[in-house]
Amino acid sequence: PALLSLALLFVGGTAANAVDSAQLPPGVVAKPVFEPRGITQQDLIVFAVCCFPFLWATVEFWRRIAVGEPFGTGKDSVVIADLPDSPAQRPAGDNKEGGRR
Question: Cα separation of 86 and 95, whole Å?
Fold first, then answer.
């Protein structure tokens, strides 16, 4: 019973949820009862902290596209910029969609 109580406390349950094994017939094992604990303030803080880097990266990605700055690493850097509409106005080797330069 002590190990079951410890396991329940570890996953957020309480020892009161566990049935005392002395009340059960021999050979019968009680199943632990898990009850939802709801969303706590700690859950919200962890969620916000974990979302922050992804939100930052999203804003930075779209900002770099908007102003035509490169993004990527080293030789894999990409610049998305407006190119002339006419193929005759474009330098050789450029494609209309932008991409690697």
Answer: 11
